[in-house]
Structure formats: structure tokens, C-alpha cells
Amino acid sequence: MDGLNWTMISESDGVSPSQPFRSSPTSRNTSEMATPMPFDVVTAVVYTVVFIVGLLGNTLAIYVVVRYAKMKTVTNMYILNLALADELYILGIPFLGTNSVLSNWPFGDFFCKVCMTADTMSQFASTFCLIVMSIDRYMAVVHPIRSSKWRKPQVAKVLNGMVWVVSFLVVLPVTIYSNVQEELNTCNITWPDPQELWAVVFILYTSILGFYGPLVIICLCYLLIVIKVRSAGVRAGLTKRRKSERKVTRMVVIIVVVFVLCWFPFYTTNTVNLIHIIPETKATTAIYFILVILTYVNSCANPVLYGFLSDNFKQSFQKVICVHKPNSVCTTEKKRGRKKAPQENHVPIGTEWKTAERSGILQKK
């Protein structure tokens, strides 16, 4: 179940996930709206793969940050929060898949509100996490000394909590107005009158707060970072600390770029659909399916980026994988180490006796 993905481009009186694009009220009917996606097998396979990869990857990222002391850096605290948001978003796939297969919502009205709220809140939390990470990178690179007293794991935990509080407040309209619509028996948002106006305002509201606004802030942060790095590079060479900061900054930048590539088509389609209503055909439905899956792929890609771009994450991932593989390289090395240890510390009995005898002779002399 994907709250924003279903509702942001739906008409004011609601629409099922099988009919994502708004159509003319005069041309719509219940039978058309209940039509399932034309590629059920492909849909099921893609949903399953994305769900498994995203769930395992984000669970692994959460585990290594919580488990290993060396991973509890300021940046990793924000990555932990991003992984939690991605995991919560991924957990909506089974409900989205169930609704697509059955063409109705079988879980009841209360659970509809819970799922819509959690799903939409996780999307905003992911975006706000990226804002916090970008501002943190700006402070670390541009104002390293001044920001040192604020850039601490304890402060990062407080900011992570604030991200979730703000995300919940932003999605309160979804919590209030989401329900199971009687005509279609689907979980969606039913806006009050005037419904069309509410729907348009909600699309603009979520697009600005959930994507375009944060994107401006993030771009501004990295623009200032680039200016600072270029000016500092002219004056002095790279120290070990600055190299480390650059590596972390590069990782955060790539995470942001992947986020933009995965979400920009979705939000752009929503905005275009306000100006010109996109007709619903098999082609547009397939395109919308790809756009929705692309947003989930973003949550799957993040743990992979952590592993490739951060040596600490890579080493921690390898440790966890080795623990669960009896014949892995790590386990083999541990066994070899145990075998070598006695040999290095072992002294033959004959040698001990000869040493003692020589010692005695020396004492007699």
C-alpha cells in the first residue's frame, strides 16, 4: 500500500491502485476502476524481489550500526534513521501487492489508516533525513571547528527523533481522511468538499514539502560545500581528516543523487497530471507501475550504496555475513589463527630441559 503513490495522482473521490491516473468524471465507472494491472505475474515477481532485497539490505544496515561501536558516528546515526524509514516504506509492499491482486482492501478501516500513515510518513522521513545529512555535511566541511560541539551522536539521535515527529505532523491529513471507500472497497483518501480543490492542494503540498523544497535546500548545501572545498584546495593540500570528510561527503552526495533519480519522475508526473490529465491506458498504467517501483528501488539501493561507498559499512557487512557462514573466509581465517597460536607459543619438552640445564650450569659457574 503506497499512500502518496496512490492518492497524489488520484481524483478527489478516490481511485484504486489499478487506476493511478485521473480521468474525466464523466468517463469513469466502477468496473473500469476495478480492472487489475495487465501484468500480474511480472508485478508479483518485481514486488517480491524488491521487497526481499530491500528488507534484508536495510535490516543489515540497521543491525551493523546498532551492533558495532565503531559504526556509531554522527553520519551513521543519520544513515540508521534513513534505513529505518526505507525499511518502513518497503514493508508497505505486501499490502500494495495484496490490494493489486484482490482489487480491494481486505484489512479493515483502522489498518487502512495505520498503513497509509506509516507509508506516507516514511516517505517524508526519508526526505527529511537527506536534508539533515546534507546540512551535517555542510557544517562538517564549511564550519568544522564551530560545529564540533553540535556534531555528536547524542545530538544526531535527538534530530532523528524530530524528523519522525515532523513527518507525522506533515502527514496528519492522510491520517484524518484515509479510509476504506465503500464503492470500490479500496484504501485511499476521501477528501471533504470541494474535493477537487483538496486533491490539488494536497498534491502541491506533498510535492513541495516532500521533494522540491528539500531538493532546493540540499542543492544549496552542496553548492556551498563545493565553493568551500575549491577555495581550501587552492590554499593547502589535503590532510588525512579532510580526505575522510570528502569521502563521507561523496557517499552522501551519491545517496542524494540516487534519491533524486528515483523520485523525480514520480513527482514530475504528479505535477504534469495537475496541468494536463493523463489518460488511462495500458501504456500509462505500465509507466505508472514503473514509477512506483522506482521509488521502492531507491530504498533497496541505499544499503548497496553504503556497502560500496563506506569502508566501515563494507567491513561490518562482511563480519555479519561471515558469522552466518560456517565455511566462509572469515571463519577459515579464525580457525587457522587458532591452530597457529599453540604452535607459536609451544616449546618442545626437550628444549625446555636443555634450557634449564644450561641455566643451571651458568649459575654454578
Automatic annotation (TrEMBL):
Its main location: membrane. It holds the Pfam family 7tm_1. One of its GO terms (cellular component) is neuron projection. Keywords: Cell membrane, Disulfide bond, G-protein coupled receptor, Glycoprotein, Membrane, Receptor, Transducer, Transmembrane, Transmembrane helix. PROSITE patterns: G_PROTEIN_RECEP_F1_1, G_PROTEIN_RECEP_F1_2. Residues 9-31, 333-365 are annotated as: Disordered. It comes from the Eukaryota. It is a multi-pass membrane protein. Residues 57-306 form the G-protein coupled receptors family 1 profile domain. GO terms for molecular function: neuropeptide binding; somatostatin receptor activity. The chain crosses the membrane at residues 44-66, 78-96, 116-135, 155-177, 197-227, 248-266, 286-309. It is found in: Cell membrane. Coiled coil: none annotated. One of its GO terms (biological process) is regulation of insulin secretion. Belongs to the G-protein coupled receptor 1 family. PANTHER family: NEUROPEPTIDES RECEPTOR, SOMATOSTATIN RECEPTOR TYPE 5. This is Somatostatin receptor 5. It comes from Labrus bergylta (ballan wrasse). The lineage of its organism: Eukaryota, Metazoa, Chordata, Craniata, Vertebrata.
